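Example record

The entry below shows one chain as it appears in the dataset: sequence first, then structure tokens.
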Amino acid sequence: MDGPLQLSPVFKPKIWGRLDLSPIFEPTETTPRGHTRPRPSTHRPPPGTPIGEVWVTDDNSKFLNGPVAGMTLAETVKIFGRELVGAIHPSTSLTLRRRSASLSEVEGRTVSLSNHVSPHHGEEREARFPILAKYLFTSDWLSVQVHPDDHQARAHDPGNTGKTEMWYVVGRDQRAEILLGLTAGATKKTLREACAEGKGRDLLRAFHPHRGEAIFVPPGTVHSLGPGLVLFEVEQNSDLTYRLDDFGRRGLDGKPRPLHWDKAMKVIQDDQKPRRNLPLLKFREPYGERRYVLACRHFAVEELTVKRLANLAGNPERVEVLSLLSGVGRFETEAGWLGTKTGETWLIPPATRSYRLVPNEEIRLLKFYVPDLELDFHQPLKRRGIQAAEIAKVVFDCA
């Protein structure tokens, strides 16, 4: 695995989702010979189903090229371990227990699956890809909700990890709102009382996000998303959510969606303020521009704008992921070339020594990975003359 590997997206029906996911995900695509075909995807629901989330690093995402074509991301992580994810930085919770299998060891036969051991109390969990990333498409309000940190997740839902996340605003209607953190004077008690009446949103801070804005959401921050948003979300590989107020709605199955008041009350941090209005740390590169969006120990996010040929390389210590927000082009390696376009997601394995990204039209993409915060953010930003106080506004401590 020494070149870019494309992953298929997984589409998730939601009561607050949309029917139209364009221009990120068109239902069809044109082949190099000019033929129209359905766009590759995994588990796409039938037409007429509202889609709220599109997971691009889902366990069930399938590889579309290379030696692992047809395998899911979960299968590939279990079998190949370090060969796919690299020597993950020790600040993460992913520690491989034994040497991962090589490609030659799995050809033509079944291989036992590697596990990883949580560093907490010797708890053993199945190996998983370290980062979950997804698009969100909203046409209605999401529930008022909160996520636990790792310690709280182990206490309340053993076997799960917490959920630290960030949002990148891909698009938004002019009046779209995000609710993030409690208003001044609100408490857990008053929030629970408001949620019991379906008025939980009234006690949250509201703002209108702008396109290209990045927002950091640590565990314990109560939040909700309004209609008219397209977000790219990067987070720990966890979907653990405690719902406080769903406004009396029923799910797609016709049943009321469960609330989790008791667990939520134990994890809410009522003094959390929105982490937004971050400094725009954008710099010129030979290929165009590079923006250091934000980072914490669980993930880092950069934005690359590729206007000209980009000579790139993988990182021998880790896997990196590229998700194209817009544009058309191709990846070139010694083995050949692969076309790419808006909405596609590619893994760059650690053994990828070099590759080129050639834009047919300007490409804008998000790059995310598990960072070494000092090497990947602090040092390069200092070299570019950014003061420590400004760096601290995009590099976050988190549980």
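Notes for this example: Residues 138 and 152 are 28 Å apart (CA to CA). The longest helix spans residues 373-383.
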